[in-house]
Amino acid sequence: MTKLQLENVSYRYKNSERDVLSRISCEFEGGLLTSVVGTSGSGKTTLLSILAGLDKPSTGRVYIDGDDYASLDLDRCRREKISMIFQSYHLFPLLKVLENVSYTMEQNGVRKKDATARAGKYLSLVGITKEKHKRYPANLSGGEQQRVAIARALASGARIILADEPTGNLDTANSDLVIQLLKTLAHDNGYCVIIVTHNMEIAEASDKVYRMSDGILVAEAI
User: Fold this and answer.
1) What is the helix (H) or strand (E) element at residue 216, kind and residue range?
2) Helices 172-189 & 142-155, crossing angle to 10 degrees?
3) What is the pLDDT of residues 6-44, one digit of tens each?
4) Distance separating alpha carbons of residues 182 and 11, to the nearest angstrom
5) Between vectors from CA 5 to CA 48 and to CA 190, what angle results, nearest 5°?
6) Which domains does the chain have, with CATH numbers?
7) Which is it for strands 33-37 and 192-197: parallel, antiparallel or unpaired?
8) What's the pTM value of the predicted model, to 2 decimals?
9) Cβ atoms of residues 222 and 209 within 8 Å
10) Which pLDDT tens digit goes with each residue over 52-62?
């Protein structure tokens, strides 16, 4: 199964006197829902950026399925192997729901007809009914927009999903739906799902939990 590994990773912003991340070594595995919890400013979002290949560690190495990030085309890696889900959804406001999900596939060379058909299947998987496919994101609830964002992540074909506070803008009912959906993707479909959050309900639903504090990552007992 897909695996992400960090080996002695540290990160320091330019002109800063301290590390935001400090000598982190850990593994994230497919088939598991893993959460990284911690307060604001603890380094969680920086860790996510490192995992996504958006930032390079100051020291240490990151591996995906045994391949060093330093040897990879990270733009291609993000298109094909890693997908992100954001708290604020980041849907295209001028594209309809179906178009939002098919867009990623079309960018990866899938024919428009095939991309549209597959987009419909992904939307069905996350519980977005057909009558909402032609709506614009602004005409959906927050929970529905987040589920569309998850469908778009699945449409990329990536087996690693990085989620940044995916329930931060949702009420309790929709939060529970999103958590369960991400857990199902990990357990039933073998996805490697990593959630950065301060929501302890997500931690309680996770298979593995890391706590981030002042740039230091420690595994917690479940």
Assistant:
1) strand 216-220
2) 20
3) 999 999 988 877 889 999 999 999 999 999 998 888 889
4) 28
5) 85
6) 1-81+158-222 (3.40.50.300), 86-150 (no CATH)
7) parallel
8) 0.91
9) yes
10) 999 999 999 99
